[in-house]
Amino acid sequence: MTAGARRAWPLAAAGTAALIAALLTAAIMATFGAQLGCVGGGGGGLAGGPAPAATALRAIPAARLHIYMGAGARFDISWPFLAAIGVQECGTDGHCGLAPSGCAGVMEIAYVRGSECSPDPSVPTLWERFGVDADGNGASIFDPADAIFTAARIFRSDLGAPPAGGPYKGYYQAACSYYGACADGIVDYAHEVMARAVSFGFGHEGRVSGGSHEAVRGAQGAACGGSAVIGTGASGSTIVRVARSQLGVTESPLGSNCSKFGPCEEWCALFVAWVWEHAGVPMQGGTPPFAYSGSFYGWVTEHGGRVLPPGATPSPGDAVLYGWGPTASEHVGIVESVLGGEIVTIEGNYGDRVARVGPFPPALAVAEGEPGPIYAYAEPPGVGAGDGGSQS
Question: What residue numbers bound the domain in which 227 lies?
Fold first, then answer.
């Protein structure tokens, strides 16, 4: 597929996960009525888990979320990945029509023969080859359910996407194939898709209880008249996954301090805020309020997180703060892993790019090339209870 009609879309403005959970069933019925039923239910538990993270519940309308989950179940594919593709192509609840490129629908599937999206007029389009009637009303590329189910089938049948719970690398490559390339001069498509997928819950498909995907089934139950299971939001492992997805991303042009992570200014702190936000940490106001690295020191304590002293053992996902205190802060990164007495970090604006640093002993940060010693670790709210972080 070509990049002609593609563009990145921001996530919808945040609400509260609790409110969305309470309104989940009503929103589905108001949008589609009883006719929607359980799209793609097929009996049994959903195989396309996991349960929606708080970010997904805030960003995706309930009816659309239900469709992604149903498609994931029917075609055994990660629904957060499908949702990330859909948001990238058409926004959180869009109803995209026919693009000038010849792609159409909410998943921008090749639809017109001889167009930019399907150049050879003698070859059937992807829609002609894989079109799915998801709800029994006849297959239409302009029906969001049909388009989403068709995209799921394309990914599994034609683009080599792994089954639900499959490796990050496999899904990353499938995103590259869907776009036609991993990146171009306009958008870093696959990285953006995967970062969003992780924020929606990708990577937790293996959390199974009693032989079935209980959490996913709970969300499906809400869509069909039951009660929702609310995702827990950010975790240290999710933060690390999002950070890793950005390794190698540079500012553009080099030396300009202009990056995808926020305004054109020194962006190490903007990177940390962007990663936390995409992993489900509620960074109100986006990245601009966090342009100063020292801002994390106070923000985490004000929002239920913790500040750990430099002699503590951090956890993956924590922010590592370099300098001489919150008013004399020089740099910030993200702890990727703790290896005995050493840490590995992922840092933005490190040589004009996102880079991995270490392993190195925390006490020797300056010798590693950091602009100052570690003065603290900032543990985001909601992470410490599950991931630890202990003082030594």
Answer: 17-233
